[in-house]
Amino acid sequence: MENLCIFEVADRYFVENISEFKEILSDKVDALKNVDWIYNKGTVKTCQPDETGRKKRCKVGLEYRSKIELSISDVDIIWNEFSVFFEKINTANIERISNNEAMGRYVFAAKNYTGDEVECAIYLPGEWNIPQIYISGFVSGRYRNVDYVE
Question: For 30, phi and psi rounded to 5 degrees?
């Protein structure tokens, strides 16, 4: 297991896992085969300095997105793959947020004990939705490797 307490390591770990999950979906869901994904590498944000003057870093806006029309059976496959994959990488809390499913909006979230989060949202075609899927990630605040060396 990698030392996920270091920002650079955690950042790389989540980028790799989100990319791997996207590839799994492309293999398992027929509608996602050969789909063009838009990738956003995200932005590193700097937190306020602590009492020692060190600043934690976090990453927001990491995502893969594709405007593609999916079916309810695709949503079920994606949910199964999501829960299995993020359970495998030791994400503490995996949930399916069902509040807006009647409107064709499906959201799956996985969070760990440090506050890192991965979310998969699917919008089925409808009056209020543009059909799409996106997988986004947030890496919570951590010190950089150089902060531990000093």
Answer: -55, -40
